[in-house]
Amino acid sequence: HVKMELSRMSGIPRERLHVCECYDGVVARMFRDEHTVSMIKPKDMIVVYEAESMQNPRQESFHVLLKHRKPVPNPIGDSESSEEDLEAFGLPLLLSFPTKLSCREVWEHLWLVVQDKVDEEYRDRFKEV
Fold first, then answer.
1. Cα(2)–Cα(4) distance, rounded to whole angstroms?
2. How many CB atoms neighbour CB 32 within 10 A?
3. What is the mean pLDDT of each run of 10 residues along the chain (129 residues)?
4. What is the pLDDT of residue 80?
């Protein structure tokens, strides 16, 4: 089983491993405990996240799945962009947070995780929100 083997190799409890197949910038499938390695095809993009268990959390928590999006060039040349004009790219990010955290604490933790992935010229925009 995928999660059992990954847990053995990494030392991370199986319940905290979230094995996902990603496609076009989104999570296309999440593997359950009973999924086996034989279910993975050679071209599959498999991503493993460590986060609080969704079934048996050690503490009350919530999960956030973030994805990167970028504007899609408008063939008409209209400069107005809308929600539909964005496409997912890259790898999504799965995080879990204890429900007792304030919004500020969630933001601060998220910033710690992503700050090195944000282009330096944009960092000041997000650091103090």
1. 6
2. 11
3. 92 94 92 89 94 87 90 69 76 93 92 86 73
4. 61
Q: What are the tens digits of pLDDT across the range 95-108?
A: 999 999 999 999 99
pTM > 0.85: no
Count of C-beta atoms within a 10 Å radius of residue 97:
17
Q: What confidence score (pLDDT) does residue 10 get? A: 96
**Residues 6 or more apart in contact with residue 129 via CB below 8 angstroms:** 107
CA distance 49 to 55: 15
CA distances from 57 to 16, 33, 54, 62, 66 (A): 9, 15, 6, 10, 20
24: left (phi over 0), alpha (psi -120 to 50) or beta: left
- What are the tokens at 71? 């504007």
Q: What angle do CA 22, 108, 66 make, to 5 degrees?
A: 15
Q: Which residues contact 54 (CB under 8 A, 6 or more apart)?
A: 18, 63
Question: Of 11, 20, 65, nearest to 40 (Cα)?
Answer: 20
